[in-house]
């Protein structure tokens, strides 16, 4: 009887140990799941930006993760930010030594005093790389339009190429009317079948996605965007990057390139490429203020970087 009792006691002890071990393992497993879930929630958290701009985004270029956003999915006019897509397609489709003769209509657009231009001359050919530099560094509208015409034969066909490229990158909010990002009626004889006031549009998140794809597939575009001067037809002048560099050199963020978009409809907008503590970021600020207040877009870009990185 004592022997049976001892056996039972041993069995009860063993079962208790097994139950305790099982409970401990389950508790440990549940705890690990809770920690993993908490980490996942933390990773998925996107900062709500407090910028005064109509829309903004900060993206980590290395991961593609959106770190902060305001009205990130709302399509807005992007003006000359459009030239990033034109520059990308130029690098993809043309040789830099190709010679391009602008159309008479493109020359006429370049003569408009309200539009940024090189300008170009009739019956004159220009190297592709000179036009590309002018479009990206000086935001020359006539240069961008000449590139689009050379690639596709017309602005209408070029906008279809822009749309097809954006679709490949899963960009769904883009609307394209011309290679330069100017108003449809400013395209003179090359305007498309759309309202006169129509301008290229995209959401801030899609601008960031587009920029990420362009940098991924054509990283050499950074070298073009980061030049502080531009020389065209023997004339040297400060580039748009010099404005960015002058402002951000006074901050802790290193600007490595970017593109301004300025029009009455888009206000002042900016997509910037930054390095901070060895990490790389894309920022987008749309409609920071009225189009004449250029400093506002740099101020708001710094604000959203401060809030996220």
Automatic annotation (TrEMBL):
Superkingdom of the source species: Bacteria
Positions of the Peptidase S11 D-alanyl-D-alanine carboxypeptidase A N-terminal domain: 45-289
Alphabetical UniProt keywords: Carboxypeptidase, Cell shape, Cell wall biogenesis/degradation, Hydrolase, Peptidoglycan synthesis, Protease, Signal
Any one GO biological process: cell wall organization
Coiled-coil parts of chain: none
Binding site for substrate: 259
One protein family per Pfam: Peptidase_S11
A GO term, aspect molecular function: serine-type D-Ala-D-Ala carboxypeptidase activity
Active-site residue numbers: 80, 83, 139
Signal sequence annotation: 1-21
Similarity comment: family membership: Belongs to the peptidase S11 family.
Protein name per the record: D-alanyl-D-alanine carboxypeptidase
């Amino acid at each position: 009887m004592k022997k049976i009792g001892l056996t039972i006691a041993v069995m009860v002890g063993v079962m208790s140990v097994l139950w305790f071990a099982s409970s401990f393992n389950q508790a440990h497993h549940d705890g690990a799941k809770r920690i993993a879930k908490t980490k996942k929630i933390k990773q998925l958290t996107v900062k709500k930006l407090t910028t005064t701009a109509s829309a903004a985004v900060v993206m980590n270029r290395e991961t593609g993760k959106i770190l902060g956003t305001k009205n990130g999915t709302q399509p807005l006019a992007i003006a000359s930010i459009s030239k990033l897509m034109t520059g990308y397609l130029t690098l993809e489709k043309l040789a830099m030594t190709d010679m391009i003769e602008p159309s008479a209509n493109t020359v006429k657009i370049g003569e408009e005093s309200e539009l940024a231009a090189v300008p170009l001359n009739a019956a004159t050919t220009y190297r592709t790389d000179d036009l590309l530099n002018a479009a990206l560094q000086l935001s020359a509208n006539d240069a961008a339009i000449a590139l689009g015409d050379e690639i596709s034969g017309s602005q209408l066909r070029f906008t279809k190429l822009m749309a097809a490229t954006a679709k490949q990158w899963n960009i769904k909010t883009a609307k394209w009317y011309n290679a330069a990002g100017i108003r449809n009626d400013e395209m003179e004889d090359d305007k498309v079948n759309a309202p006169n006031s129509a301008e290229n549009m995209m959401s801030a998140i899609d601008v960031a996605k587009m920029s990420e794809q362009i940098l991924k597939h054509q990283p050499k575009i950074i070298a073009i965007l980061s030049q502080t001067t531009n020389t065209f037809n023997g004339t040297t002048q400060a580039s748009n990057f010099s404005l960015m560099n002058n402002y951000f050199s006074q901050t802790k963020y290193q600007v490595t390139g970017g593109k301004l978009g300025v029009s009455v409809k888009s206000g002042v907008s900016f997509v910037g490429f930054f390095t901070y503590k060895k990490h790389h970021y894309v920022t987008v600020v749309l409609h920071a203020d009225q189009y004449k207040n250029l400093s506002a877009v740099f101020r708001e870009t710094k604000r959203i970087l401060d809030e996220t990185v």
